[in-house]
Specification:
Length: 605
């Protein structure tokens, strides 16, 4: 006969086990999850700014900055929110943006960190490569982040992303956007396997026009994986299908690509396949079917200008001192009221200059800084012929989709869904206000930023904000779909991007702006929730969410902010399904035991 004491002891053991599994274990910091893909929630925690501390030999760092365009790998140690990874590779990254910064007095380069370059077993919670994007050409600092958010909301496979504050050898470099690399890890996480063919087209063949049956002739398709088995790829079959009117559903994920192009069109991302550049996208072939992967959105929301080129008015900090090329035209020669520049049918405002010309004050347009967010060419960008500086016929992938009545109807349905549910003033404002609360003090302290804190705040709400863009753009989309508004595509009069080597010397002192006005903050901004900084941009006081004083990482790679607050610590904890299942089983057993005891006691035993 079972004694009551034994039953109660059993219950106590089960209760203790339940408490340990469900409460104690997560708070110990032990990684209870199979960390293969836990980087998504740990490294890319969107509810906070992740700290990235880079330790690198001073001579290597100086050489990397001096020869940035060489993209030479250097050895470094990286600490990400207290997690230290030694012996990793780091280099500068970028193309036109890299060359533009290299031709200026700024050294704020985007960076790529390769955790497994020297040791292929090494990773950061499963992450093998991390991009730190410098937000070049985006005074809002939000275009790329919001674009990825919208792509996610449309159900597209999207790189993980969040904001990160970077230091090098203890000195601040500033606020960057951390973005997951599209590589084997990304493919395994999003597609269940990485044994297919990953392409990053940029160059000959990136327009996906038929050249020949020999894949070697498509030198710009940028095969990144499975190179040894390229003869097994269906790339040529896919090219033939989209160019010759074949059964494209056999070779491409039609629905996914319609969603991609609908969103890409809605947010006016022209530094992409939809301009003459024909780049900044990935294709992944799995079992002979091609999917498209979004990439590089710092010039979305019309930031790339009409005709597929960087453009728009440049706004730099008030103390910016820009140098003009010796052979450049003078401002007097350029600033004639009756002077017009070809812009695909859209007249430029006075002061805007094509092809690296000089704006007032000698600002070289080659820097490609984002300009008038509310430009009519962006707000009313065509949704019926969604290309710029090119034609649909020269964009066979997009043309194959939109020339089919069924697919076009579905594309237009997605555009309507985007305009009414995603690219709305309310949705974008929710994002920008959250980012303002999270980022403003980091932007203010950033010693290398390209633009001012005021410009960042201006993008949050108001007449020239991203939410206002969303409002007007979505209205335009709906009017175009209903036929109330007819917009001609900007397919002609394209202006080529300036050659970075011809943009002249730039002298841009990157200093903390003196015109920061706290009164420009959103109405619901709570300064108490963000870390204060002194007039020199030095960090002091408390961290967000009740964190403690700022401290440098200790020699053992201790956390930057040891008292970040319970909420952030909870957000950084990842519990796997096995732990949840164990807790559930224990809870069920506890309930069963309790019922047994109650029944046992009723019988008076």
């Amino acid at each position: 006969m079972i004694k009551t004491r034994v039953v109660y002891i059993s219950m106590a053991i089960l209760l203790l086990l339940f408490v340990v599994v469900s409460a104690v274990l997560p708070k110990t910091g032990i990684e209870t999850k199979n960390t293969e893909f836990s980087y998504e929630s740990i490294v890319f925690n969107k509810n906070k700014v992740t700290t990235v501390d880079i330790e690198i030999a001073e001579e290597d760092w100086a050489d990397m900055l001096e020869s940035a365009t060489d993209k030479e790998l250097k050895q470094a140690n990286i600490t990400v929110d207290g997690k230290r990874i030694e012996n990793v590779a780091i280099r500068t990254k970028g193309s036109s943006s890299l060359n533009s910064v290299a031709n200026s007095d700024s050294d704020r380069y985007s960076l790529k960190i390769d955790f497994d370059y020297y040791d292929d077993t090494q990773s950061l919670y499963g992450l093998k490569k991390l991009n730190l994007n410098n937000n070049f050409s985006d005074s809002t600092l939000m275009r790329e982040y919001i674009s990825y958010e919208l792509m996610e909301q449309m159900g597209l496979p999207t790189p993980a992303h969040s904001y990160m504050y970077v230091t090098v050898n203890g000195e601040d470099r500033g606020l960057f956007l951390g973005v997951e690399a599209v590589d084997e890890t990304f493919l395994a996480n999003n597609y269940g396997s990485n044994d297919g063919f990953l392409f990053k087209p940029d160059g000959t063949g990136s327009d996906l026009k038929y050249i020949s049956d020999d894949i070697a002739d498509y030198t710009g398709i940028g095969l990144k994986t499975n190179e040894g088995n390229v003869d097994q790829s269906k790339f040529i079959d896919m090219i033939k299908a989209i160019n010759n009117g074949g059964n494209i559903e056999k070779y491409i994920d039609v629905d996914e690509m319609l969603r991609y192009f609908a969103m890409n069109t809605a947010i006016v991302n022209l530094d992409s396949y939809q301009s003459n550049m024909k780049h900044n996208y990935y294709l992944y072939e799995k079992d002979g079917v091609f999917s498209i992967i979004p990439w590089d959105y710092n010039m979305s929301f019309g930031g790339f200008g009409g005709g597929g080129r960087m453009g728009g008015n440049i706004q730099m900090p008030a103390d910016a001192n820009m140098k003009a090329p010796e052979d450049a035209q003078t401002n007097e020669q350029l600033d004639k009221p009756d002077m017009e520049f070809p812009n695909n049918g859209v007249q430029q405002q006075q002061g805007e200059r094509p092809n690296g010309g000089l704006d007032k004050g000698g600002i070289n347009m080659g820097m490609g800084m984002s300009g008038d967010l509310m430009a009519d060419s962006a707000i009313n960008f065509s949704v019926t012929t969604p290309v710029s500086g090119t034609t649909l016929e020269d964009s066979p992938l997009l043309n194959a989709l939109l020339s089919n009545e069924e697919y076009r109807a579905k594309y237009e349905g997605y555009l309507e869904e985007i305009a009414t549910n995603y690219l709305t003033e309310e949705n974008i404002q929710n994002i920008t206000k959250k980012l303002a609360l999270l980022l403003t003090t980091y932007v203010e302290a950033d010693p290398t930023k390209f633009s001012t804190t005021e410009q960042f705040i201006e993008a949050v709400e108001g007449e020239k904000s991203l939410p206002e863009f969303a409002k007007q753009r979505s209205e335009s989309i709906l009017k175009q779909l209903s036929g109330e508004l007819v917009v001609e595509a900007t397919t002609q009069g394209n202006m080529a991007m300036p050659n970075p080597g011809e943009m002249g010397d730039m002298n841009i002192p990157m200093q903390r702006p003196d015109d920061f006005d706290p009164n420009q903050m959103p109405e619901d901004f709570d300064p108490s929730q963000a870390p204060p900084f002194n007039q020199n941009g030095d960090k002091q006081g408390d961290r967000p969410n009740g964190g403690g004083p700022m401290q440098r990482p200790d020699k053992n790679g201790g956390p930057m902010w040891p008292n970040q607050g319970d909420e952030q610590l909870k957000q950084g904890t990842v519990i796997d399904k096995n732990t949840i299942l164990t807790a559930a089983v224990c809870f069920v057993l506890l309930i069963v035991a309790l019922l047994f005891v109650l029944k046992f006691n009723r019988r008076g035993r």
